[in-house]
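Q: Can someone sanity-check these two? First one:
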Amino acid sequence: MSIPHSLARAARNAVHTSPLLQDPAALRGPQPRPQMRRYEVSTLLENGNVVQTRHIAPALPLFEDAFCAFSRGSLIDTDCGPMAIEDLLPGDRVITQDGSAQEVVWKGSTVIVPGRVSATGRDYRLTRIMADAFGMQRPMSGVIAGPSARLLATPGHLRALAGDQPMLTPVQHFVDGMGIIETAPPTPIEVFHICLRRHAVINVDGLQFETYHPGVQAVRVLSQAIRSLYLNLFHHIDQLTDFGPQAFARAGEGEIDAIPA
């Protein structure tokens, strides 16, 4: 009689996570050091100056998601017209979903290799959205989104979860193998993300993407050390609540991650 998949998976997890079931010699040996990554940050200061800093921090999803939304060449709508993400600077004003213009207060970038799985098992595949995949001029010329990008749209399989409310959904949920595909080039790719003074949805080449917000659930179980390293990336905030409320609900792992207050 075969073992049910759920029981087999639970057994594997127990072996991997319980010290009592692991080889004592392996436990006495040197433990693997956490993988680190270099992050580039530009921040708008209160006096209007822009400061650029370089950080070495853990390659954890919470950290990486702050940098991995847009690839080079992504066109952001600003009050001066479309601007490539790599040319956008803190202090520039981008057009949000409600038609207002907000200042960019933070921009981060890092380099990933989409065709390589990280030491933590994370996949960095990019999502290529062909022109007109979501309708006429949506997007206008095609978009390559990073692994942490979210669209203000709801795919068919999540409509029962969202109801009639708009929802921010990871781009991977829209992959259909035709107009929206995954791609994993073997060469390094520079990716970016931005923060505004408040969480918002912006136009990127005709599609509506969110600006950076860590989310409500992601920051609840941080240790003090990790929290300090994370906050050190954001010179424009002093504490996690300074990110403010989310503009829209998010799709999480099979549930609504957070509903804005």
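And here is the second, same format, sequence then tokens:
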Amino acid sequence: MLLASLFGVLMGLILGLTGAGGGILAVPALVLGLGWSMTQAAPVALFAVGSAAAVGAIDGLRHGLVRYRAALLIAALGAVFSPLGIYFAHQLPEQVLMILFSLLMVMVAWRMLRRERAQEGPSDHGHASWGQKNCMLNEQTGRFDWTAKCTATLAVLGAVTGVVSGLLGVGGGFLIVPAFKQLTDVQMRGIVATSLMVISLISAIGVIGSFHAGVRIDAQGAAFIVASIVGMIIGRKLCARVPARTLQVGFASVCLLVAGYMLLRA
């Protein structure tokens, strides 16, 4: 129980310091630290990441940063496709799941190392940096122009996020944040807040699907979840004091080390 709480605080701390992508360390903490299987760890990791993300999403809603219509559409498609990921997770061998998760961590580390430092503007209304992006904000209303192209883009993003979430027990922030940055003209504060809302919704859907499949969370898992929320709150308070590039490089290095170890275990 104590070890689960310790790993939970550490995971939540990293999640709070680095943003949505930090939740990818929840599954390795349970698999490598507590000796759980991937199928056991996935729902607990989803619950922990989703609960911590909900804290940030509520704060984003309070400040009017969340693109809630986009978040609801992505989460709705995630709800439809998350059970497909859960089904495959129970069909694939444990070694295959660990290899897939390791490759995912390498991809996240690579994106983190090459990511430019976000430049926040005075408001959440961004501007396209190149051409006409798939989803553009209306200059008068500050909301998305819901064209067929924009709707289809967000729907596909939701479907992919749902499958990956159900399969590997991750919230999908590592997909949502870069996709929003590439395909919309929303500024970074709005992207992160919207991502956190999507993560909390999709994680909740994934957890419900896992419960339906017969998975249960024991006292050790509950301790991990509660501790992760505490760690996330602490991390959000500390993040402003640590240089962004230091966080990026440190988090990417941890991801690469854990991915290498998981590959060896697999």
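A (reply): Looked at the second one. The first helix runs from residue 2 to 18. The chain has ten helices and no strands.
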